[in-house]
Amino acid sequence: MIELIAENLAPIMFASLIVFLLLGYPVAFSLAANGLLFFIIGVELAPLSDSINLSWPLLNALPERFWGVMSNDTLLAIPFFTFMGIVLERSGMAEDLLDTIGQLFGPVRGGLAYAVIFVGALLAATTGVVAASVIAMGLISLPIMLRYGYDRRVASGVIAASGTLAQIIPPSLVLIVLADQLGRSVGDMYAGALIPGLVLTGLYMGYILLMSFLKRDSMPALPLEARTLGSGVTSLIVALAVAGGIAYAAHVLLSPTQGENADILGATVGVAFIYMVALIDRAMKINALSRLAQQVIIVLIPPLALIFLVLGTIFLGIATPTEGGAMGAVGALIMAAAKGRLNMEVIRAALASTTRLSAFVLFILIGARVFSLTFYGVNGHLWVEHLLVGLPGGEIGFLIAVNLLVFFLAFFLDFFELAFIIVPLLAPAADKLGIDLIWFGVLLGINMQTSFMHPPFGFALFYLRSVAARVPYLDKVTGKMTQPVTTGQIYWGAVPFVGIQILMVALTILFPQMVMHYKGSGATVDPSTIKIEVPGFGQGGGGLTLPDNGGGLGLPGGLQLPGGSPLDGGQQQPGQQNAPQQNNSAPDLSAPPSFN
Question: At 594, which helix (H) or strand (E)?
Fold first, then answer.
């Protein structure tokens, strides 16, 4: 019996960790306690099994492993992006965006739902924090959607799902963690996840479009009296056309000197021009633009500029993700100060939330280091690799099994726990099967996004439940009694969006180029077609001719090639020291030279 336990210590260790987590113990302490407990057991059982490589001196490696975690520069991006997101959320950016985009889409059936998805994508690209996005949109949008007759399940589902876009759209925190665990570049992970994130946003909007036809009464358009900014879409289209023309002209002018960067610089010139026009138009009350066009331009451009400051510099190779996060944090402070909403209370709250999340991540990482030391010592990584690589179906079978496993575990674990516990075990098997790890990481990120939406443990559902009304309340605008949103309605509203996320996983598997574009479109070289030819020596062979000592290149010691052939191309005859012989045969370079 003891021998059987010793031979199967790795699966027993993994199963006990799952039990600890299901019992509700903190993740960091479950990992560390499991690692230390099974280390002691493994040392005692080591003589009974060749698969256990544990001994007491191995504990001396723990301090160095902890130092490796704490000195990891890549993980510095997590507190930077968290701080940026909290400052932006406290500065009222989400409120301004939701109000403005809601007015823009208001005349369309389902316009508020479109606005929530659009703003959710923008907040994802500026904050990267799911909690901030869901809470902000739940506080601002949910009462408005209920006021104008939206179905409660649709309203709650679209808010929760849009908030989770911060999971996959850069600068997502989980993408940073996945890149670190997979040993890949964060910049590549961001580039690979960008298109899937945008496609997922489009699928959400497609679902709202479909529901607006199937259940017309579930998402009515804003009534005329609620459109406080009036009309003016034509003015906005004209303004955008002018900005596009200026951007194209600037691109043409800058191309001779700036090369590939001319398109980005041209777009910057066009956006800056129309933003200045809108500011001047509002300040001087010229009214060349409609109120709607003014508001959209003034509210949208600052967060878009911040997105470019963060992601643009990373994609262009100007800044690392850590440096991009630092610039984003400074940019968020500047935006909050420009709105007059930067004070010590905002900074204190942002620093407290950032410290809490960073400590949470660091403790889980340290616990994971303890667990992995023991798990690798009992050859657990080899057990997992053999288990996954040997699945029927090869690569497709592996992907199906892994995605089902992650989807099931997402019911109970959040994405940090999945990233730190499961991903390090899956990566070696994926690499052995020849799967690109950036693509694999993005695929897992999309799948783990469902962990926020799974009833009954989805964190996005908890965030929305915390801000949604629990009892009937009197609406301040209409003066009518409004019924609350029940927990069941929140859960049922999330189910269609979980299905959309599963569909996105399938699309990523079927169309891997959505992610693989991160490698660029450069020409690939087949190593088998590479041919290296070494030129022969001597004038007759048309190869490289080296003059002798009398010709200006002196090689002391009379260096000769194999077979007695001197470097000047042939045998020297008496009286012909400065006249090299013609020799059409290339020397044998496989033998060592002789020194006479």
Answer: strand 594-595
